[in-house]
Structures
1.
Amino acid sequence: MWLKPEEVLLKNAFKLWVTEKSNDYFVLQRRRGYGEGGGGLTGLLVGTLDTVLDSTAKVAPFRILHQTPDSQVYWSIACGATREEINQHWEWLLQNIMRTLSVFDSSEDITSFVQGKIRGLIAEEGKVSLVQEDDPEKFREALLRFEKWFGLPEKEKLVTYYSCSYWKGRVPCQGWLYLSTNFLSFYSYLLGSEVKFIVSWDEIWKLEKSSNVILAESIHVVAGGEDHYFSMFLHLNETFLLMEQLADYAVRRLFDKETFQQEPALADPLQISKRGLETHARNEQFRAFFRLPREENLLEVYESFLWVPFSHFNTLGKICLSESYLCFASQDGSQCYVIVPIREVVSVEKPDSSSRAVTVCVRGKRALRFSEVRDYERLAYGIRRRCGAAASPMHITAGEVSLAIRPLIEDFTEEALMVGQKSSSKAVSTEALMTVFHPQDAENLDPKMLKEKMKEQSWNIHFSEYGRGMSMFRTKKTRDLIVRGVPEFLRGELWLLFSGAVNDMATHPGYYSELVEQSLGTSTLATDEIERDLHRSLPEHPAFQSDTGISALRRVLTAYAYRNPKIGYCQAMNILTSVLLLYAKEEEAFWLLVAVCERMLPDYFNRRIIGALVDQAVFEELIREQLPQLTEHTTDMTFFSSVSLSWFLTLFISVLPIESAVNVVDCFFYDGIKAILQLGLAVLDYNVEQLLACRDDAEAVTILNKFFDSVTNKDSPLPATVQQAPVSNNDRTSHPKVDITDLIREAYEKYGDIRSEEVESMRRRKKLFVIQTLEDTTRQNVVIRALSASLWGSYADLQRQHFLSCYWTMNSPALLHHDPSLPYLEQYQLGRSQFCALFSLLAPWVHCAGRDALSLWAFHLLDENQDGLVNFKEFCCGLDTLYSGTFTEKLKFLFKMHLSPGERNDFTTFTALIDLGFFAKHILPSCWCIFMFSGRGKVDLQAYLKQWQDELLKKEENIKDLPRINQCQFIQFSKTLYNLFHGDPEEESLYRAVASVTSLLLRMEEVGRRLQEPGTPTETTPPNGEASTSPEGSSDTPSPPSVPEPNSHRQEVEWSFAFEQILASLLNEPILVRFFEKPVDVQARLEHAKATQLKV
């Protein structure tokens, strides 16, 4: 490998290199301790030094130096892992450089020329290299070591590497941690002791920062049941965040089957880089904090002061600019942030160059003044370019500009909405259901309504000071108003604002109406489930006792299922959507549902409810931190997970009366999942004494249910007909009423210091554990009861083969056609190349000469529906036949492989006689992990297999039904038999037996054909003798027998054979029967596959 020229001072240096070749300008050296005369103490010391100092010499012990006469300075220009490689570089220098150097007069010119040539060679290599790093030269050297030490496929992309210590027991091993797209790898070499291991990201259960007496701070990784500790990082936080991102990327890509089409930095596994991952993480954090659409990316960041008019001071913070939004977040503890859609900007001014200020005027006669912006001209230009607003004359105020342009904007918006709703305005409801079924009486002066009016007045004052709409200032006061409760008539507007759904609706006019038209009338599994649950959604509320509410709910849920078929419809979505429809218009409710399902509660509403399980794990950790007395009392923390699942899935709507639950939803839309976690802790804290006195889980559940029944909303203006009655009225007198406002306020006071960033970090960590636990539990539910302990360790090699099809591409058939709704044994599939690779490793005929062709034929045979994929069920059928089938079944498998696709029947008939005991114990569990499946509850394995067997028996195939094999197919069938015997100890005898059977079959066919032709002579011509010749004297791999050519006058007549004829002839050769009935060591084949998989 050519190296960027670097100075090497050899005078008085420690003699670590031995010169092997030299001339006037170049020196070829070998690292002491390597090659001839290597090893011993010198080799140990040099190897240790190279590893600790990250020297390339550890993997490239040869180098070439450039020198000039009478100079003590040498330049390293090349290195090599082998003598052959370094000799190639040496010869190139002699042929292309040496002749030219004689024309130069000075040594400086010679050195400059050589360095230029070497840099040119490196630049040419870089054009096709994957290396796009800040320091390409260092990265190239690290990549060389990574490839040499770990032997992973060339397509594996190294992301970055760090120096660290790995703790093997209580002994630290100084070495290097390499992070690549699919693997975490470590290498250390100290005094002859080499430590090297590779862990794939999809195997990791736990990834966390930890500390103890020995390790001040370290990174703890749990994978494959083993604990790994890494410490002594120069930048531990940076390393940990990058490891989190790579692990999360693997989970989303391999388990969730995401393709990242809208995220270019992650779309191609071969182009993943440290910079790309950091950019992606920054964009995700930016979108989550400001609740922006998924297509928004952070483009520019500026430090500045923002003038806060209501407080009359400047607050320090950062301006974050994306393609469509200008955002500001304070950094001085004032918790002030602003979101300005570029579409609402009407002008951008630079009033005072001395203060480096930029004034942004927005609709509504409002202006934002940013000062002390370092590059204020660039900021102003960037905003103008995005909104198309030219700078106004200095004498025109922001208010005048706003008044001038506002009618145009309003007309445009109104027209767009009319166009979008014109065709379906009759179908889509334009009023919130609460407005229809509970209109407010302005003249009602009862105490609750007066309290409601006071809330409205407080919000109006807030709007006048802080602004209204998207560009409103959001501060501590905003949160205080949310905690006190939102007025009924403002609830829908504020939900849209704080969730960010208002942005989606503004940028997609008419989208919902189109979805309604396209989705109504469709019939899918999702629509069937929706119809079943429509009347279970808030059935006590008058709005959902009428066709108006039910129809609106049906349209919203059906439209969303049509928009996002990956989620479709899941239970709990109906309850949430019902509450949204009470306070928001139908289209607004749809966009609120989009915000909840796709941004605020990711992975909640699918069949595995991964998101809810992750947040429950976060909740458990918070309980340990905040309520240690409960942790000490409760031995099994899963109780809190089971009891709190409905809290997270329905945002407490299913356990609290509706008039109280909406206050929780208010907080959720403002603070996200943090609000639900805080309230959950407050609920447990409120009942902690009673929970500590409980004797079992049932008693604890009863206490919590009674508590929720006692929660009220004393300020709710809703009439009794609308308010939800408590589930249980027993012993109500013994439980004092708890006002929801007081409960929420207490939650914020006690647990408000929980930061959203900490919650997101815990979410990422817990997701690994939840995913692996769910997969492991599902595996056990399906196969563990039928699995022998000796085969449990064979999962990894079969599981990885499925992942291999996704490791280095986003376009693998197995990934693109993944369908989580399929049954377990049919859900995960292999494409042709991955199937052939695995089948070649697991086929019982170890030395088969034509394994590639055999694997391809087997793939086409097992691919029942001809979709180019083989699922787990089909794969197991093939292995079971080859491992445990009878002689007849194995022969039938080979026979059908040689039929044309149109002649093959369903392959499932091959498994009609499967030994379910052997299959369940040996084949199914060992192959299961290759097709990682989604868990949807417990599965009875024996019941599933019984159902499968019943289906197969219905289609049991008689060998007489098999079509005859023609001339070309029989020739290929004979070749296949010969290939199977290659390398067998009885190879010669098997060849003779097949030759004898082939000759017999050909004679039988010739005689039969002559008897059917009355005009032919009675004499028969014996077939060509070559078919029965012995393989003696032939090559190591004898050719298959020659097939006699028919006479010229009968050339148009082709002969054929029935399966019965072939079977009967082969049964006459006991050695062939023994070969096919020979038992197969399944465990040995699996171990071989495990050791070979990544190299295939």
2.
Amino acid sequence: MLLNGDCPESLKKEEAAAEPPRENGLDEADPGDETTSQEVIVIQDTGFSVKILAPGIEPFSLQVSPQEMVQEIHQVLMDREDTCHRTCFSLHLDGNVLDHFSELRSVEGLQEGSVLRVVEEPYTVREARIHVRHVRDLLKSLDPSDAFNGVDCNSLSFLSVFTDGDLGDSGKRKKGLEMDPIDCTPPEYILPGSRERPLCPLQPQNRDWKPLQCLKVLTMSGWNPPPGNRKMHGDLMYLFVITAEDRQVSITASTRGFYLNQSTAYHFNPKPASPRFLSHSLVELLNQISPTFKKNFAVLQKKRVQRHPFERIATPFQVYSWTAPQAEHAMDCVRAEDAYTSRLGYEEHIPGQTRDWNEELQTTRELPRKNLPERLLRERAIFKVHSDFTAAATRGAMAVIDGNVMAINPSEETKMQMFIWNNIFFSLAYVAPTNDLNGVRTYNAVDVEGLYTLGTVVVDYRGYRVTAQSIIPGILERDQEQSVIYGSIDFGKTVVSHPRYLELLERTSRPLKILRHQVLNDRDEEVELCSSVECKGIIGNDGRHYILDLLRTFPPDLNFLPVPGEELPEECARAGFPRAHRHKLCCLRQELVDAFVEHRYLLFMKLAALQLMQRNASQLETPSSLENGGPSSLESKSEDPPGQEAGSEEDGSSASGLAKVKELAETIAADDGTGGAAADGRERAGRHLCKELGGKAVGSISSTAFDIRFNPDIFSPGVRFPESCQDEVRDQKQLLKDAAAFLLSCQIPGLVKDCMEHAVLPVDGATLAEVMRQRGINMRYLGKVLELVLRSPARHQLDHVFKIGIGELITRSAKHIFKTYLQGVELSGLSAAISHFLNCFLSSYPNPVAHLPADELVSKKRNKRRKNRPPGAADNTAWAVMTPQELWKNICQEAKNYFDFDLECETVDQAVETYGLQKITLLREISLKTGIQVLLKEYSFDSRHKPAFTEEDVLNIFPVVKHVNPKASDAFHFFQSGQAKVQQGFLKEGCELINEALNLFNNVYGAMHVETCACLRLLARLHYIMGDYAEALSNQQKAVLMSERVMGTEHPNTIQEYMHLALYCFASSQLSTALSLLYRARYLMLLVFGEDHPEMALLDNNIGLVLHGVMEYDLSLRFLENALAVSTKYHGPKALKVALSHHLVARVYESKAEFRSALQHEKEGYTIYKTQSGAERPLRPAPLTAGFPAPQFTAPSMASVLEQLNVINGILFIPLSQKDLENLKAEVARRHQLQEASRNRDRAEEPMATEPAPAGAPEDLGSQPPAAKDPSPGVQG
């Protein structure tokens, strides 16, 4: 939590409770459940203030909380403008030193108003180094080079460039309301219809980045370390400084502080020089000797503390930028030292030893988790260790590929080599790692006590894929045969099992839908497993049960695994399956398995209902069963025979499906005409139905309950099953075929349908991949998705999806080729090779020539190529002969082989022409996928006279990192409950829950995280609806900054956040800011996708309305008419959105007094409303009619513009009187009680229902337009 909005990064507040909180039952509750309606116990910690006395400045007071540690006060002081130059001090209370790591509540006598004294301590070498590092950080605090270079978890943010820092408190100045001429004309390239897509505006130069030069050089002196006789005088180290005035001085860091000595570059003289000034702080010494330093350092610190904390806090995982401006490479002693000394395998904060990653990762998992504070502590520890491990693993993987780590088996060939660095194990492989990582992710999420997985990170760098894993204690001393006590090390020949492993894995089998099964080993003995045979169990020397090699956690995907003698269902055969894939490890995604099981559950319930009706039909003489309207009301639903299910069950919304299921379950229970108690009857009915149809019809493994599980070893090469299990194996094979068919007949059509209805709005490759994965569709099905889009009747309404899909297909195919291409490039030819590849891929120049490394540097002696070179040290120049024709031929070939899609293009220009792509978008996509960083400049892609890229344009190549994302479960439950409350219209309660979720997210993740970002966005929206614009602005500003820092400055999510912020700025009368934010969002949208996207209609409506508000009518019309065109294309000419668009255009014509055009548009809109609602709908003013006195037109009122802005952004205020509100509340409460009652009745016994449906919003609240692709629900007040 941030205190009064400006506390430093270090103050990630500890919010864990002071008193043990009463348990709020949240962990058992289902996230969407109503349990949280009993008031949630908010974890309070009452803060108090203390007075700080520091040398040389006025005393000041500081707000602290009892949970904080003393060291957090240290951090605050090191961040404050007036005390930031101190690092080596202790805090004293009544003459007693406070321990660094003790919590404030444990300090005796510390209370409201206590005085803490800052006392300077003597330096040690370590403290002196920390001090110099801190001073260097202060000097670099506004310099963005770390963010461009992707180091130390720095990343970029450009929001302040567009807001001029006038949000939040200072935003209360009613800026731009007096209609002082705001310059509203956007740059030419932002206007609708512009073909220009410049790159430079992506990273505008921030004024603060031209750093004020305080010193020319600050570096370690060559006289280090001090000789013995000087050590005995207290010398710790020597620094060399050149001041801004060009004075060269040598400085001694001693135990008592810093002073000038008489050494020069060539002559060592450690005696003090004049002025003989000893200062405890290096900054104070430099202030004495350099007037420029004194002036500029003060200005720099002022600017530093004015920046929003979110611009400075480190992100949990490194974010890389794919473009960067040309930067000066400045001398930097700390950076130089880091590169060569301490960081090679040693982490700073544990002096003198490497970190035992495995021990840290496993110990955090063992922390207690009985109540909320314990779980928070545990999740925070897991997250922190995990992000540290990811950073270390990434550094190690790069060191391995760059050839800086010795292999532990150097004699083997390159791809078999293994490495150990910093207690992390590295190996090179390509396919298995991502599957293995998904397995680790899954088992971590199930989180069974006593079962341990390895820390796993997969890093793609310079064309190689490296897996980094923590090391099981003792594994390196033993043979693998001795270690493995569960699973198989030779692909199923010898298989062993272990009762403890079976017991642990049994607990994961239900959530992961894994079947416990028997396999045969090489001696034909039956061995029982509860995972795939590849999964190995090893007990480490620490006594923990580890599982590893989880690459076959999920069942195989038969569409990509041709098995001789096995026929696939006809849906698969029609689509051209099975097709052989590159490798045999194609698995179904966990999301698909879950969706398939749920689909089968609905099918099962429908079959049950059918059975029931047939039984009831034969029992017509007992009319009682029909009186409650059960079966008759169900008839409509269950008439279609199960065969049609696949097609009809496309509603991807599990909520509605599960609601139906509950209804059915109740009916079955109520109608079991045995006259027994309902619960009894339901139990019997369930068993009876399962027996009658469960196993046979839907593939359930149990005859008494609905339970579908998969055997992950089916179709595994080399695995054999005992005779006794043949029936089970046959059923399992069928289940796998059904799942493969389900993906093609349900999930892919469901995705296309969602895209058509704009339920999902992908904007770039990454967002498309995400919506596919959420539905369990692997990327290898991309070609199939595109084929279905092409065949779709409303093809043009899916234009945007098709474009994104084709772009993704091309860049992924190019990435596959690039990978192998890079493996043949030596380090010195890297930038030449990458620029040559980009020229062949994107430049219209027909025959680019690769620049080989300069001849004068090529040595005369070429050594013979060794078999065991380090991975990244190839020395051939085969890459230089690639041509654009050859590359594009390979891309088309790869698209056909991998995605089974025929690209119709032989050059980049044909691709752009045929599919309407943009070269700048393709450059962004390939750079993000491969880690390339290019120079920020305008590239002439279309020039036929010179290539677009030179080797100077390739600045860097970064790793692309995949890792597990640990979750904050309690915070997430609070967030979901808050969303549910909001959907029911309880805004205040929802707001409280979401605020609490925000506290918990901050607690677990620290201040910066994707999930915190979603939380802030929803809070801002709620505050806005409740009329608190200032709070909405402050929260949304944080959401924008966080999205830029954590997801990327041009990520589609960031574009969304900019739009929301613009709306709240407009409502707070900051018109020019609102406009510049919208223009920024439009520019990013053009760069990332282009103009022709449904989201662009929303953006242009926003821009048009704001321009209308500031009386820029002609400009406003350009945007609104573009929005109208785009809406008409994507929603069809008869959609309500289009009617609204007509109305907005008409209003502008009206303001321009062009009534004929206005009338025309109002008529169009009116016609749509009439056809849609069948009656005149008093939603909009009726069309203007002639024959009234000429009206006096003035500018539209801000209120009316704001009202329209709210409508198009999916926020609808419904005017209700106080009495209406009371009635509404009573009605909602009444329904709520009814739901509760029926739920309690249901809870008695229900073997079949898997999860309760989340409560939907009551109908009374009026319908609202779909929210602007906002994960938060559309909200009404």
